[in-house]
Give the backbone structure.
Amino acid sequence: MILALTRTHLSHTEVKKKVITKLAKIADVAKAKPKEQFTSLAHLINEELLEICHHEMDPNKASGIDRVMKEKYGESLSNKLQDLVVQMKQHSYHPQPVKRVYIPKTGTKDLRPLGIPMVYSYCTPPQTRFGIKEFVWI
């Protein structure tokens, strides 16, 4: 049961639409006022959005330096997301270091580095998930 979505009665699609609509408005302002500076998109972040990110995340993603997998992070998810939203809106969120592993390069004996973030980092910032970059960096 998805508690945050039950409270607001919005489907995943409706939450995404709301965010995309807000992003379109921001894009309009950016086009109309090219010198306008946007200092934060935190007002777009809410528990529902992060919950959608969490539920859409691949459960087979490797664990980060904390060794926590998606299923384990999902325990008490609502409380964790509330804390995360508060941190992001207060600009006190700082991503943790990523786990560095080396994987083989295709067709060679060389290795290339790969960074694996912690589970909650897959949902932060949600910009990458819902196309905020495409709207804002016009």
Notes: Residues 47 and 79 are 10 Å apart (CA to CA). The chain has seven helices and two strands.
